[in-house]
Design a protein that fits this description.
Shape: globular
Largest sheet: 10 strands, mixed
Number of strands: 39
Strand content: 35-45%
Strand order of the largest sheet: 16-19-18-17-20-15-12-21-24-23
Helix content: 25-40%
Number of domains: 5
Number of helices: 14
Oligomer: single chain
């Protein structure tokens, strides 16, 4: 037993020792002069060292060299085989004709977990090792700015079979520093990143063919002591809820999806601290996690790396479960956000059951997901246990002081329990109104999607943040949304309710498909306002006007309650660099860091509205659009859907090739300028109406289809379509039975464009 304990301690300490050694960033004092050019290649990227000096990193304990610093003349080339990614590079680099990355460089920092450097410099002789300012600068940049700890990643890769981690930074002539990053644990392992004015732009992200998850979480058991008040921020929000400095003990059942895993990379909020871990026998486990806050005066000292590397003494076999318990402290406001407050694998792929044992002080009340199993009083406060038996992707709870609670039960929908802090006058009515809006939107969505929500109840909780978030049967609503602003308040609440379908019942496959959650939830909420709120048609039109202005960068939304003037980007060159809806968060740029919000929350709903208008102009009602929504829910409920899946449903229900629509509006970022005109002349048995239109400001293959409504003096109306497939003017002629009273080009925001009649 003593020998086994010693061996275990050595197995755990070796990765920690390697990690500490790598983080010293020591490089050879004696440079190696290149006698001839050297070339390094990884997938589509190649680095050629033409002339100059190389310094190698101090080897790991096993003798492996993981780093190299180069100064001299070199060249970096990278082909981009994916057309969407190539368009992204062209957009971000502002080089519309760029075919590939081809840049000279003068400095390079190269880190890798494989034997590339050992083989390249097998016979090189180096002297002592010391600090290197170039390496230190780049390493700190990766840690602080890019939130990437290559040292921990290399240690993890050395313990996991067939894993590869690589980070290469080069100082180029035209683009400054570019970082090529390879992480074999990701769905998209290859990234090319440019740091510009405190923002990381991901110019390229390339997926691999077959995605295999390394491990998954199947159950999360939380024991949380929430009785201590916040140390750093005593209270927050308009209701001045006391922050909670909680202590968490989280036991997770982790199952390997592949053989040979001895290191797991997980994420948690950067403010979680004093973290330790142990296995089911109580034996300690090593955690590698950098204290980033100590590295820069510009960062809060409390910040740690959001990623942690968990070292297991023995590698796991596929299908083998392992219980790991994490203990840590974390200060939160009155709610637990997303799945980031407990260790989880990146993304939202895992479904797991859960148990929450929450101890709150006597001044607090708590509500959580799942079923309340028991509740008891202790000397410190109230302990409650909540069980989540239906697998979900996120767990949460919410607390409140001076709380009020309202329950509304209506046949056909789950009971709705509204819970939140009460201060001032009328808060009880506001909490009841929140519950009523949730009930109304549930009824509407169950009809709209022809799908009944299968949860035992829905909790609606007031949080001190300025946002909302939906969980499975549990909603966070910003306390600011409890002030009644007709139309806007219902829109906010209905958006979160819509996530019970878009995001939970139907998930998304990757960040590229997350618009299927946010854009669909927003447009569903817009339809709820249009259909059920008094004056809904007027509010709906006002929302469209506001969102059109946000997307196009003008103030057409005016002073509407639905407008977001701080998101209006009037600079045309800044807007031109924004990525499309279909690349998710990567749509943001250094010029417009909130670009993802614009594209997903505002342009996405406009695109869905265009689809609805095209279909309704063809069929004269909403039936086909509703069928698409319902079929999408029916076919993908309980699954993660991709954008291609939605396109297939559209093409199934509205037969034809809709690639033009998805290529232009989801995978492309262009917005056309359209100039149009019309004229009419009497002919036998009526009038001939001619509509001409020309689009510009978009790529050559852009297809803009505009419905055109013709209103006749006899009260009748009809619709024609003007397809603009090239830069040439398109003319469409039709004969109508009576004199036209008015012609409306792309009515009701049927085409997202800068439209002007000539």
């Amino acid at each position: 037993m003593i020998i086994a304990a010693v061996l275990l301690a050595q197995a755990l300490s070796a990765p920690q020792t390697d990690y500490q050694k790598l983080q010293r960033w020591q490089y050879s004092a004696q440079p190696i002069a290149l006698a001839q050019p050297m070339t390094f290649t990884r997938d589509t990227a190649t680095w050629t060292l033409q002339s100059g000096n190389v310094r190698l990193s101090e080897p790991m304990a096993n003798g492996q060299i993981t780093g190299m610093v180069f100064e001299g003349q070199g060249r970096f080339t990278m082909t981009v085989p994916d057309p969407i990614e190539l368009a992204q590079v062209r957009r971000f680099s502002q080089r519309p004709d760029l075919k590939s990355i081809d840049e000279p460089f003068t400095e390079m920092v190269f880190r890798t977990s494989d034997a590339t450097l050992d083989m390249a410099f097998a016979f090189a002789k180096t002297g002592g090792y010391g600090s290197n300012s170039l390496a230190e600068n780049r390493q700190n940049h990766w840690l602080i700015d890019l939130e990437s700890d290559i040292d921990a990643r290399i240690v993890a890769a050395s313990l996991n079979s067939e894993a590869l981690q690589m980070a290469v930074a080069v100082k180029t002539a035209d683009f400054g520093w570019l970082t090529y990053d390879y992480d074999s644990s990701l769905d998209e392992p290859i990234e090319l990143i440019r740091w510009d004015r405190s923002f990381a732009e991901t110019w390229v992200s390339l997926p691999r063919g077959h995605v295999t998850r390394l491990a998954k979480v199947t159950h999360v058991d939380v024991k949380a002591d929430l009785t201590r008040s916040g140390m750093w921020t005593p209270s927050s929000g308009a209701t001045q809820q006391r922050n909670i400095n909680g202590h968490y003990s989280v036991t997770e059942s982790i199952v390997a999806e592949v053989d040979g895993l001895a290191a797991l990379r997980m994420e948690i909020l950067p403010m979680a601290h004093d973290m330790v871990a142990h296995d089911e026998r109580g034996a300690p486990l090593t955690i590698l996690r950098d204290h980033i806050g100590k590295r820069s005066i510009n960062l809060d000292n409390k910040i740690y790396d959001r990623m942690l590397t968990l070292i297991l003494p023995q590698s796991l076999k596929r299908g083998q479960p392992r219980l790991v318990t994490f203990d840590y402290d974390l200060e939160l406001s009155n709610y637990a956000p997303g799945n980031a407050w407990y260790p989880s694998f990146p993304g939202f792929h895992d479904f797991y059951t859960g148990r929450l044992e929450l101890l709150v002080g006597k001044q607090n009340q708590v509500r959580a997901m799942g079923k309340l199993e028991s509740q008891s009083e202790t000397e410190k406060g109230t302990r409650s246990i909540w069980r989540i038996d239906r697998p979900t992707k996120m767990l949460t709870f919410s607390t409140a002081e001076r709380f009020d609670e309202v329950k509304i039960e209506v046949a056909g929908v789950p009971p709705v329990i509204s819970f939140g802090s009460t201060t001032g006058l009328g808060l009880h009515a506001r909490i009841r109104n929140a519950a009523a809006d949730v009930v109304n939107s549930l009824q509407f969505y169950q009809w709209l999607f022809d799908d009944k929500l299968d949860v035992p109840q829905i909790y609606v909780t007031s949080i001190t943040g300025g946002h909302g978030q939906a969980f499975d049967g549990f909603l966070h609503l910003s306390e600011f949304s409890y002030e009644e602003h007709p139309g806007a308040t219902e829109l906010f609440r209905a958006h979160e309710v819509a996530h019970e379908w878009w995001g939970h019942a139907i998930g998304w496959q990757s960040y590229r498909d997350q618009w299927l959650s946010e854009s669909f939830a927003e447009y569903s909420a817009m339809m709820f306002v249009q259909s059920t709120v008094k004056g809904g048609d007027r509010y709906f039109a006002e929302i469209l006007d506001s969102y059109d202005g946000i997307v196009q960068g003008n103030m057409s939304g005016g002073f509407s309650k639905f407008n977001r003037p701080w998101l209006v980007v009037r600079n045309a060159s800044y807007r031109a660099r924004l990525g499309p809806i279909g690349i998710g968060y990567r749509a943001s740029t250094s010029d417009v860091p909130f670009g993802y919000l614009i594209q997903t929350y505002y342009k996405g709903p406009m695109v869905l509205h265009m689809l609805r208008m095209l279909l309704s102009a063809r069929t004269h009602n909403d039936d086909l659009f509703l069928k698409i929504l319902r079929d999408f829910v029916k076919q993908f409920k309980g699954k993660d859907a991709g954008t291609e899946d939605f396109q297939r449903v559209v093409e199934q229900d509205a037969p034809g090739n809709w690639s033009f629509f998805f290529n232009d509006w989801i995978y492309g970022s262009d917005i056309p300028d359209v100039r149009w005109s019309w004229r009419s002349e009497p002919v036998d048995k009526g009038f001939k109406v001619t509509v001409s239109a020309k689009r510009s400001g978009v790529h050559d293959d852009f297809v803009a289809v505009a419905p055109v409504r013709i209103d006749l003096e006899d009260g009748r109306r009809g619709t024609i379509f003007v397809p603009m497939k090239s830069a040439e003017e398109k003319t469409v002629t039709t004969t109508v039975p009576s004199k036209p009273k008015n012609v409306v080009f792309a009515p009701d925001h049927a085409l997202l464009a800068n439209i002007r009649r000539e």
